[in-house]
Write a structure and sequence with these properties.
Elements: H1 6-14, E1 18-19, H2 43-67, E2 71-78, H3 84-91, E3 100-104, H4 110-113, H5 119-122, E4 131-135, H6 144-147, H7 149-153, H8 166-183, E5 186-194, H9 197-209, H10 219-225, H11 228-242, E6 249-253, H12 257-273, H13 284-299
Parallel strand pairs: 2-4, 2-5, 3-4, 5-6
Antiparallel strand pairs: 1-6
Helix pairs in contact: 1-12, 2-12, 3-12
Bound molecules: adenosine-5'-triphosphate (ATP) and magnesium ion.
């Protein structure tokens, strides 16, 4: 990314992957192996661009924090081994840890199951001035729960509310929740890391064959793989129903990790630079105070 024009470049670079209206969205139109005009040989160029992006992000985040009005919520969803953790680690590497928080949502605890499903997530929505990252989110409620209806049965939702319309209703409620956040000054951006089935297999085998990666592999992951097509359908439906202008989805090609990191960085830069962030200005009275304080400091013996 050209550092001089980074905001503009980030916008046009991430645009092909942004979905703001799901009506015509089809997952099959999105190639997980896409790298635009980058080839494998351009990896060093991509790395350089990412470094420039990370720096630009750090500067924007500094303003977000100082201004203390907007919050930014980044939601990450993906099949296993799509690279969520790596994207989060790399893209956020330049950000001041004080202004950023990551929350991972696993299968709900019994306390969480005693509440509505948004409860545990809404408690973690970032405060003003912060960037919050959801590593999985309330979207699991229309993904894993939809693919495995027995999970829904265990959810303690009154039976009469479990109708055929439940997935549409959940999509609608999630959309409303995000609109509510937007109207409160929480900017929402959502990322689906789109990995192919072949690449997932390759990464699973790597996790099994490399001792340092063994810990990353769980047999549940290969079990979930058997439901690949059901997941793809659920993802497609979810994106169709919940992509909006205010809270767009990014369908990020994820077969090449270096490329997916670049797309996510660009999308986050674009999001932050859409906010017109600025360091708070001091007024005349504050200026006077600053001058007085300076005078006092300089007069110290
Ligand atoms: P890793 O990359 O380390 O595998 P992960 O996000 O897959 O990260 P895991 O602990 O392996 O983390 O898995 C979390 C599991 O919790 C996922 O299988 C996910 O589907 C499940 N989960 C998350 N939210 C819900 C939910 N609301 N209901 C049921 N299961 C859920
Ligand atoms: Mg996992």
């Amino acid at each position: 990314m050209d550092p001089k024009n980074i905001h503009k470049t980030a916008r046009s670079f991430s645009k092909p992957f942004r979905v703001t209206n799901g009506k015509k969205f089809r997952l099959k139109d999105h190639d997980p192996g896409e790298t635009l005009d980058f080839t494998g040989k351009d990896k060093p160029r991509a790395k350089e661009a990412l470094a420039a992006g990370v720096q630009a992000l750090a500067e924007l985040q500094g303003k977000l924090y100082a201004q203390d009005q907007w919050a930014v919520l980044l939601v990450f969803q993906a099949m296993d081994a799509a690279g969520k953790d790596g994207v989060i680690k790399h893209v956020m590497s330049g950000i001041n840890p004080q202004g950023c928080e990551v929350h991972s949502f696993k299968a709900p605890t019994s306390e969480e199951l005693d509440h509505d499903y948004l409860w545990r997530c809404s408690k973690r929505v970032p405060e003003r001035g912060r960037v919050g990252i959801f590593n999985r989110s309330y979207y699991e409620e229309v993904l894993v729960v939809r693919v495995h209806p027995q999970i829904l049965k265990k959810q303690k939702v009154p039976r009469e509310l479990l109708t055929k319309r439940i997935w549409d209703e959940r999509h609608e409620d999630i959309k409303s929740f995000e609109r509510y956040l937007g109207r409160n000054g929480v900017l929402v951006r959502k990322f689906f890391l789109n990995v192919s089935k072949e690449e997932q297999k390759k990464r699973f085998l790597e996790r099994i064959d490399t001792p340092e990666k063994n810990w990353k592999f769980s047999t549940t992951d290969s079990h979930e793989r058997k439901f690949w097509n059901d997941y793809q359908r659920a993802y497609e439906d979810m994106i169709r129903a919940t992509a909006t202008e205010e809270a767009p989805w990014y369908v990020v090609p994820a077969d090449h990790k270096w490329f997916s990191r670049l797309v996510v960085a660009a999308a986050v830069i674009d999001a932050l630079s859409s906010l017109d962030l600025a360091y708070p200005k001091v007024d005349a009275a504050q200026r006077k105070e600053l001058t007085a304080a300076k005078k006092e400091l300089l007069a110290e013996k």
